[in-house]
Amino acid sequence: MAYRTLAAGQRAQIWIGGPGRTLPELLFETDAMLIEAPNWSLDGACLFLNAHGSLWRLDLDSPERGLILVEFKDLPELNNDHVLDPDGEHIYMSAMDGHIYRGALGGGAVDKVSPEDGNWHFLHGVSPDGSRLAYVQIGDLAEPGRLAVMEPHGAPAVVDTGQGHIDGPEWSPDGRWIYFNTEGFTDEPGHAQLARIPDAGGPVERLITSDTVDWFPHLSPDARSACYIAFPAGTLGHPADLEVEVRVVATADWSAPRQRYPLFGGQGTINVNSWSPDSRRFAFVAFPPT
Q1: CB of 145 within 8 A of CB of 162?
Q2: Over the stretch 246-286, which tens digit does the pLDDT of each residue have?
Q3: How far is CA 145 from CA 26, 142, 227, 279, in A?
Q4: Which domains does the chain have, with CATH numbers?
Q5: Is the dihedral of CA 213, 36, 23, 225 positive or negative?
Q6: Residues 233-252 as b or e (16 or more Cβ within 10 Å = b)
Q7: 179 Cβ partners below 8 Å, 6+ apart?
Q8: Rounded distance, CA 160 to CA 33, Å?
Q9: What is the pTM of this model?
Q10: pLDDT tens across 147-165, in order?
């Protein structure tokens, strides 16, 4: 695997949306690097993103300063699956060697926390108490992904979500549910839909039935709102460089979007939870061509 780069003439834009924002706000734009998957810091001061295989910080009070590299020691190149530790001082990161690492937000040494079990580990969720990780376990990259949960350095347990590839597993703020997208509701390839499963295990609950291909449900910290990305009908996987739509819903009714933000993007737009700590805003990335 190799990190993604911008095509000739393409730009990366960080936008801010939210339940009360009919139009999103452009926060930052660059044609120097393909940036992906913002996490909002728990103190509300900055965003953390990946670009060119590394982690970067963007300070919200001075975005004009640009991206600031977070320097880690002996960390393999990163992909776009990274999640903040609830302690507000560390971050878990999936790397292109297939493993999950934990490091301080200020950089420095890292700790590999995933097992040498021959699988790929694509992190998406950290439990609210910080004790467990939820990730997508894949043996061969051509195989469907499975939901796995583990303690750092512990033995993973695969959770039965039925047939079909799953992605994006992350806990609800109260820790009772794991939200994800799954291809298990259809016998045809693709057509991912949004779902959740009790943290303790149990039946999978479908959140919405739509004609679009829906990925990466992210709940706000107050659990009242959620956002996700909708791909065109018939899309297989979550590819880059498509006309897609980021949607905002009230968690009381996933079927009625409160906001819709059409954009050119897909992979990297909103792979991980990017809500602000006050639940009023979230960040996402567009990749418009010339």
Answers
A1: no
A2: 999 999 999 999 999 999 999 999 999 999 999 999 999 99
A3: 34, 9, 22, 30
A4: 12-286 (2.120.10.30)
A5: positive
A6: eebeebebbbebbbbbbebe
A7: 168, 169, 170, 171, 172, 194, 195, 196, 207, 217, 218, 219, 226
A8: 38
A9: 0.97
A10: 999 999 999 999 999 999 9
